[in-house]
């Protein structure tokens, strides 16, 4: 994390601060998951950048205004090297007898694909303003908060196509045993958030203070306008010494929509996944046998070319 800050005093009643934050995360201790060797060993990595400006202006000793704006960007730190090339998985068995304890088998990964199971990019702009006013025993605050967010989530698993070969010989012969590919894997969401609040801190006595207010919030991505959140708290110093204070408070709070949840729902309604292991016989409804799947691949696909979604038989075969 790198942070740079510049403070400037415009006058005795006006000052501003400019802040830039650069974040680079590379968590090599976290298991990222996935069915690719590169996915299993790669930790979560992302880039984040934020630039903000805050401004404070003192109109009078009793009236102060604060403004803060910020733009931030979140992006994955790792890009796919394979681009649109398919992944090739080859089953390798050694020549030892089946009962030999030294016998091993494994999967050889040929080619490359996106080395992360998912990707998320986000751009966010935020504006906040708080106006504070003091009058006798009351300290009033009025404020507003606005966010504009654009988020794009991509499910990268099998997005470039994956060919399985039962042996090295099948790979050399160009006869896959299985093929799968994911389509329509991206979801872009835009959300505008707005909220405002009013709050009053009322000092009833030197050792007793009440704080109460109301906040209202609303988002554009969902239709929910009943978001009023009352707040109340009390602070009491029974001995007027400042050493012992009893505090009590309650309030209503609303969580903002998780855009990833919306992305999951959106992808679930439009995403298409093709897998030859899920193909069924149109007459009997039974899953195709291994030989039937090989025949289907040989007649509809030609390794290393992947599937085109405009194929006439694709829609009826995809999940």
Structure description:
- The chain has about 325 residues and is mainly β.
- The chain has one domain (about 1-75, about 120-160, about 175-315).
- About 10% of the residues lie in helices and about 50% in strands.
- The strands form 2 sheets. Strands 1-2-3-4-7-8-11-12-13-14 form a 10-stranded antiparallel beta sheet. It has a 5-stranded mixed beta sheet with strand order 6-5-9-10-15.
- The longest helix has 12 residues, at about 260-270.
- It starts with a strand and ends with a helix.
Question: Which SSEs are present, and which pair or pack?
Answer:
Elements: E1 2-11, E2 14-27, H1 37-41, E3 44-60, E4 63-76, E5 87-93, E6 105-110, E7 118-135, E8 138-155, E9 162-165, H2 168-173, E10 178-183, E11 186-205, E12 208-219, E13 228-236, E14 246-251, H3 259-270, E15 272-275, H4 290-300, H5 314-317
Parallel strand pairs: 5-9
Antiparallel strand pairs: 1-2, 2-3, 3-4, 4-7, 5-6, 7-8, 8-11, 9-10, 10-15, 11-12, 12-13, 13-14
The 3D shape can be described as: elongated
**Uncertain regions spanning at least 5 consecutive residues:** 30-43
User: Approximately what portion of the residues adopt beta-strand conformation?
Assistant: over 45%
Distance between the termini: 43 Å
* Count of discrete alpha- or pi-helical segments spanning 4 or more residues: 5
Structural class: mainly beta
Order of helices and strands: EEHEEEEEEEHEEEEEHEHH
């Amino acid at each position: 994390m790198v942070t740079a800050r510049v403070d400037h005093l415009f006058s005795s009643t006006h000052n501003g601060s400019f802040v830039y934050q650069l974040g680079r995360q590379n968590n090599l201790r976290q298991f990222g998951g996935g069915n690719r060797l590169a996915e299993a060993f790669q930790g979560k990595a992302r880039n984040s950048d934020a630039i903000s400006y805050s401004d404070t202006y003192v109109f009078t000793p009793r009236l102060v205004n604060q403004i803060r704006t910020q733009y931030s960007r979140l992006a994955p730190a790792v890009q796919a090297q394979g681009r649109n090339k398919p992944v090739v998985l080859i089953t390798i068995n050694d020549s030892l007898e089946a009962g030999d304890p030294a016998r091993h088998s494994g999967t050889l990964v040929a080619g490359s694909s996106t080395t992360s199971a998912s990707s998320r990019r986000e751009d966010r702009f935020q504006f906040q303003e708080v106006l504070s006013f003091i009058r006798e025993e009351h300290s009033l605050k009025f404020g507003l908060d606005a966010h504009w967010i654009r988020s794009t989530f991509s499910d990268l698993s099998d997005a470039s196509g994956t060919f399985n070969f039962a042996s090295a010989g099948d790979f050399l012969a160009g006869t896959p045993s299985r093929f799968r590919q994911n389509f329509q894997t991206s979801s872009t969401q835009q959300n505008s958030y707005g909220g405002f609040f009013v709050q009053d801190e009322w000092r009833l006595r030197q050792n007793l203070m009440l704080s109460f207010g109301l906040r209202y919030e609303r988002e554009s991505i969902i239709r929910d306008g009943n978001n009023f959140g009352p707040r109340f708290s009390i602070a009491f110093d029974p001995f007027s010494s400042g050493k012992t204070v009893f505090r009590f408070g309650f309030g209503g709070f609303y969580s903002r929509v998780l855009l990833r949840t919306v992305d999951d729902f959106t992808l679930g309604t439009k995403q298409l996944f093709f897998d030859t292991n899920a193909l069924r016989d149109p007459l009997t409804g039974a899953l195709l046998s291994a030989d039937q799947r090989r025949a289907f691949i040989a007649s509809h696909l030609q390794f290393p070319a992947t599937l085109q979604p405009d194929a006439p038989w694709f829609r009826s075969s995809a999940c």
